Automatic annotation (TrEMBL):
This is Type VII secretion-associated serine protease mycosin. Residues 150-399 form the Peptidase S8/S53 domain. It comes from Couchioplanes caeruleus. The keyword Methyltransferase does not apply. Residues 413-484 are annotated as: Disordered. Keywords: Hydrolase, Protease, Serine protease, Signal. Residues 423-484 have a biased composition (Low complexity). One of its GO terms (molecular function) is serine-type endopeptidase activity. Pfam families: Peptidase_S8 (PF00082). GO terms for biological process: proteolysis. InterPro entries: Peptidase_S8/S53_dom, Peptidase_S8/S53_dom_sf, Peptidase_S8_Asp-AS, Peptidase_S8_His-AS, Peptidase_S8_Ser-AS, Peptidase_S8_subtilisin-like, Peptidase_S8_subtilisin-rel, TAT_signal.
Length: 650
């Protein structure tokens, strides 16, 4: 089983094997950026995963030198930091040993398979449609600069690197880390995606050439986790998040995504937020494939960003879902690209929307350094321009960000006295090239596979030894595991999710916990419960609408608070088609919610729609041509997955 990570400016990904590397920061990077202040580690809630399963429950059927697996172990070290280790196995026995070693490690939090990741931009071809930054006028950035320019704020860009020598980024990019090559220092970008993202956030502004940035006085901390094709591993993303939090980042942008939640990343996010870091991620670009949930955007504590176009409509590629928090411009965004590919160019994707939000978060932090991640998220969501359905909706979240209104909600002491040029500065000529984006990756990914395996890095990171780590004396970290049914089930199926909590190998009995459930639209709502004598909690429900469930185990005087992985369930409509008379067919649908349904006829080459309608439980269509094959099709909504009936010859 392998997992998928993508950057969210959609581009093609070359095939290759999983990387064989220890995903820790090279020892040489320790002095490349100032570490955070010493002292007691902030409190954060770890996520446990894979600690009680047998190795064979975690491993794929086939493992060989041609089909290796990467085992990722996450431990909590003596200082409270999550430490991620990745090792490759080319045989089953080796993989089993690595899993058992990870499960027995002191401070163990999670053992899992690594997840490939990719950028999330959308190809725009070679015919630029606009010669200016429409997003600046839409967001009234020049007005926002009267309150803050992001001075003193560091934004980490976890991406394909950043071209630090770019003429419109020179002086804005701090020394960073390259987790693909295992180096540190001056950043480069062999792909171009990260450079485009960085330019939106903090390009040099008011210099008479090039583009303007949203937070022109912020600084970029480059963390390279994606290779030259825009692919990478979730273990590197997790390591990069911890690195950013430890090296002074106040905001993290991740224009990338995976089809699976990964505990090492969830733990890294919790760690970063406990250090006061705002975490922003792209929501994904697979709307035409039913908007499969994208991680880390859907992780707890992450601001998930959808994409809008110049008319404030949602972008055709932008994912929808209950995890979307806000929207921002993401279609045809003009920004910096590597000099070798044109210096400036257009890209589209939720990858381009996410840095708009990260940059506005930097403006807010620059206006009031005391703002917490929750306060910044509240300022963004409470002032967003409501689009689509009234209130929060799956297309826009709370709405398209409104930087001016968001800044109006925070303190004014740090407003700049000399803001940059009042109008964005754009290149006087049309760019000669666009970023090297290619065809959009296949969206047919599941939680266990990717259509585009990632490429093995050319060299292994020169990693420091992994600290063994132990929890604080006398404080236990319970382990929460969960089991449920298949994630997509027929509409109305009754599903039980069983959570088991153990501590030091024994049931965590009669302990306080909360069952937290999120519907298709809206956040989690929690209800108090208690573990059984066997340390279990069961949640049973008929699946009539998409929902997610997880268990949060409360902290005690002698134990940490922990959370399970999230289990998401999707009801699939059940549709049957039957003859009901001469020239007549009746479609029966279980799970009809007024979504689009259609009766289709096969004409020998393709399926042709005969009639389309709003789905009801039963619909009869008469006066049909005989001698042809027909089928009924039910579309997908945010709450119910679609389905296709068996074929009927009339």
């Amino acid at each position: 089983m392998s997992l998928v990570m993508r950057r969210f400016a959609v581009a093609a990904v070359a095939a290759g094997a999983l990387a064989a590397a220890v995903a820790t920061v090279p020892s040489s990077v320790a002095t490349t950026a100032p570490p955070v202040a010493s002292g007691a580690a902030p409190v954060w809630t770890p996520v446990t995963s894979g600690l009680t399963e047998s190795p064979d429950e975690l491993l794929p059927e086939r493992i060989s030198a041609d089909e290796p697996v990467s085992i990722v172990s996450t431990v909590r070290d003596a200082t409270g930091r999550p430490v991620v280790t990745t090792r490759r196995a080319t045989g089953r026995e080796q993989a089993q040993r690595l899993i058992r070693a990870g499960q027995r490690a002191p401070g163990a939090l999670a053992v899992e398979l690594d997840a490939p990741v990719r950028k999330l931009d959308v190809p725009t071809g070679t015919d630029p449609l606009r010669g200016s930054q429409w997003d600046f006028a839409k967001l009234r950035i020049a007005t926002a600069w009267q309150r803050s320019t992001g001075a003193g704020v560091t934004v980490a860009v976890i991406d394909s690197g950043v071209e630090a020598t770019h003429p419109d980024l020179a002086g804005r990019v701090l020394p960073g880390v390259d987790l693909v090559a295992g180096t540190s220092g001056t950043s480069s970008d062999p792909n171009g995606h990260g450079t485009h993202v960085a330019g939106t956030i903090a390009a040099v502004t008011g210099n008479g050439v090039g583009v303007s940035a949203i937070a022109p006085d912020a600084r970029i901390l480059p963390v390279r986790a994606l290779d030259a094709q825009g692919s990478g591993l979730m273990s590197d993303v997790a390591t990069g998040i911890v690195y950013a939090a430890d090296h002074g980042a106040q905001v993290i942008n991740m224009s990338l995504g995976s089809s699976s939640q990964v505990a090492s990343v969830s733990n890294a996010i919790a760690y970063a937020r406990a250090h006061g870091v705002v975490v922003v991620a792209a929501a994904g670009n697979f709307r035409d494939a039913g908007s499969p949930t994208s991680w880390p955007a859907a992780d707890e504590g992450v601001i998930a960003v959808a994409s809008t176009d110049s008319t404030d409509g949602y972008s055709s590629f932008s994912n929808r879902g209950s995890y979307v928090d806000v929207a921002a411009p993401g279609s045809l965004i003009f920004s910096t690209v590597p000099v070798a590919t044109g210096t400036y160019g257009y890209m589209s994707g939720t990858s381009m929307a996410s840095p708009h939000v990260a940059a506005v978060a930097a403006l807010l932090k620059g206006a009031d350094a005391a703002l917490t991640p929750d306060a910044i998220e509240q300022a963004l969501t409470a002032t967003a321009t409501d689009l689509g359905a009234a209130g929060r909706d799956p297309d826009y979240g709370f709405g398209r960000i409104n930087p001016v209104e968001a800044l109006a909600t925070v303190a004014t002491e740090s407003a700049p006295t000399t803001p940059p040029a009042t109008d964005p500065v754009v290149s006087p000529t049309t760019p000669t090239a666009v970023p090297p984006t290619t065809a959009q990756p296949s969206p047919s990914e599941t939680a266990t596979a990717t259509p585009d395996p990632v490429t093995t890095p050319t060299s292994s990171p020169t990693a420091t030894p992994v600290p063994s780590g132990t929890p604080a004396p006398g404080v236990t970290t319970p382990v929460v595991t969960g089991k449920g049914s298949a994630r997509t089930v027929d509409y109305g199926t009754v599903v039980t999710t069983t959570f088991t909590v153990t501590a030091e190998g024994r049931p965590w009995a009669r302990q306080r916990a909360s069952i937290c459930v999120a519907a298709a639209i809206g956040g989690f709502r929690c209800a108090a419960t208690t573990t059984s004598d066997g340390g279990t909690v069961r949640y049973t429900r008929a699946v009539t609408s998409r929902y997610s469930v997880r268990l949060v185990v409360s902290a005690t005087a002698s134990s940490h608070q922990v959370s399970s992985a999230t289990f998401a369930y999707v009801p699939r409509a059940v549709v049957r088609l039957a003859k009901s008379g001469k020239g007549a067919l009746t479609a029966t649908i279980r799970g009809a919610t007024r979504q689009t349904a259609s009766l289709q006829r096969y004409d020998g080459r393709s399926w042709v729609t005969v009639v389309a309608y709003r789905a009801t439980e039963r619909r009869t269509v008469s006066r049909l041509r005989t001698g042809w094959r027909y089928r009924a099709v039910v579309g997908t909504t945010a709450a119910v997955a679609g389905a296709v009936s068996a074929t009927v010859r009339l």
